[in-house]
Amino acid sequence: MRRLAVGLTLVFVFLAAGCGGGGSTPKEEFQKQANAICKRYDQKIAALGAPSSPADIPQFVEKGIPLIEQGVAELRALKPPQELEADYELMLDETEKAVPAARKLADAAAKNDAAAVQEALTEANTANQKSNRLATKLGLSECATN
Predict the structure, then answer these.
(1) In the chain, where are the structural domains located?
(2) Nearest 5 degrees, angle CA 13-CA 14-CA 18?
(3) What pTM, to 2 d.p., does this model score?
(4) In 3-state terms, what secondary structure has residue 48?
């Protein structure tokens, strides 16, 4: 159970950390703004705690997804420098893949389907790893933490 809780926390921290935008903020300012948003939403997700049992997962996901969506929306509003734009968009796309995975996770947990829970966690963790690599490449250390 502890492994599942840690996995869920990682999924939500990752989801909260997705980043995005348009094209004209100087690189250092863009990185500062994106990192601040990621840090703020990481803290909000952490404040949710972790589910203590599989029965707690659906409610945890229900509370976490709106935070993730808000964080991603704020990050998408940023305008990265042109040289970072493609990787930034890829990072956001990977981040957003974890939202349906989290919903699958909640459904699987509600049905007490351990195999589906593991599948959803694997799906989310794969997207998380890709997003974290891109965040690191972009200099977005707060967006790559978990």
Answers:
(1) 2-144
(2) 120
(3) 0.80
(4) coil
**Token duo for residue 2:** 């502890």
pLDDT digits (tens, 9 = 90+) for 123-143: 989 989 999 999 999 999 999
> Per-residue pLDDT for 71 more than 60?
yes
- Rounded Cα–Cα distance for residues 91 and 57 (Å): 26
Mean pLDDT of 73-92: 95
CA distance linking residue 42 with residue 12, whole number of Å: 8
Token code pair at residue 13: 């921290």
Query: Using CA atoms, how far apart are residues 35 and 29, in angstroms rounded to an integer?
Result: 10
What is the spatial distance between Cα 143 and Cα 88, in angstroms, rounded to a whole number?
11
Of 16-30, 67-81, 84-98, 104-118, least confident by mean pLDDT is 16-30
Alpha-carbon gap, residue 6 to 116, rounded angstroms: 17
